[in-house]
Write a structure and sequence with these properties.
The chain has a single domain, classed as Orthogonal Bundle (ADP-ribosylglycohydrolase fold), CATH 1.10.4080.10. The protein has 17 helices and no strands. It is globular and about 45 Å long. The structure holds magnesium ion.
């Protein structure tokens, strides 16, 4: 594993989140009139440029947990709860942009429910709130057998999102991330994902859920028109949108800005796309001025450095 790719993935999530946050919830038609071209700040949560939200904070909590104690859902859940209660790993000292399933999970953990059981599991709990923060687990598990990857990814998703669809989406993201970490270009990695034997997909994609991922797994996602790509909060839409942006771009900035300019759930679409693009183009491929302005920049860089060093030593 290359350090630049791991650091690029983590920073890619944070930068994508920060680029999309100011225009969150605004329809696509408004972005057509006034596309986002860089770090703007203010807007949706009235935060200064470089501010990230739940996507970035929970990704940092998970990376820190894995760095400090290894792969442990209970520990990760405790750090998520510190984010929720105390504003841990937030730009301004308090948590904001909290999704409904994540909020239920936090309240469940406060009531003593174990982390692995905390995430709600109904079909209506399939928002993108576990996909947006799963990348540190993808890095940790990348060298493992697919059955081990599937188990670990489902556990880490279930802390906030326990329905098989949200978990399956995270598994597909992990399989694609693994190909990208190996150095494949976006289209090659996507082809590799779609060529995986059925038994590998089955480890982490529930049988009854497979039909929901048809547009991804049929190998033609990149050919869909922009009007066919949805960018709301539904986990399948976010995964499709992020992958579509990756496949139709040839650098980091274009990937994440395409995601932001799809409108609606802009911070999470760009965070999920930014994680993938960061692996492909590395931290060196992220515009320096976007990293420069990040809230908690030095702490983030320090954690990303320690996290990636540890994973490289382990591999
Ligand atoms: Mg957010």
């Amino acid at each position: 594993m290359e350090k630049d790719r791991i650091m690029g993935g983590l920073l890619g999530v944070i930068v994508g989140d920060a680029l999309g946050l100011p225009v969150q919830f605004i329809p696509r038609i408004e972005r057509k009139k006034k596309p986002v071209t860089g770090m703007e700040g203010w807007g949706a949560f009235d935060m200064p440029p470089g501010s990230f939200s739940d996507d970035g904070s929970l990704t940092l909590c998970l990376a820190e947990s894995i760095y400090e104690v290894g792969f442990n859902a209970e520990d990760a859940g405790k750090r998520f709860l510190r984010w929720y209660d105390e504003g841990y790993w937030t730009p301004a000292g308090y948590a904001y942009d909290i999704g409904s399933a994540t909020m239920s999970a936090m309240e469940n953990m406060k009531d003593g429910v174990p982390a692995l059981e905390a995430g709600p599991k109904t079909e209506y709990d399939n928002g993108n709130g576990s996909l947006m923060r799963i990348l540190p687990a993808v890095f940790y598990l990348a060298a493992e057998d697919p059955a081990v990857i599937a188990k670990g990814i489902w556990e880490m998703s279930s802390i906030t999102h326990g329905h098989p669809r949200a978990c399956s989406a995270c598994y597909i993201y992990a399989l694609l991330g693994r190909e990208l970490l190996d150095g494949l270009r976006p289209l090659e990695a996507y082809r590799a994902l779609c060529s995986l034997p059925e038994e590998i997909l089955q480890f982490g994609i529930a049988n009854e859920e497979k039909k929901h991922f048809g547009r991804i797994l049929d190998g033609k996602l990149e050919h869909l028109g922009e009007r066919e790509i949805w960018s709301g909060g539904y986990v399948v839409d976010t995964l499709e949108a992020a992958m579509w942006c990756l496949l139709n771009s040839d650098n980091f900035a274009s990937t994440v800005l395409t995601a932001v300019n799809l409108g609606y759930d802009t911070d999470t679409a760009a965070a999920v796309a930014g994680g993938l693009a960061g692996i492909v183009y590395g931290m060196s491929g992220i515009p320096a001025q976007w990293i420069e302005v990040l809230a908690k920049r030095d702490e983030i860089l320090s954690l990303a450095d320690s996290f990636s060093e540890k994973l490289i030593q382990r591999s």
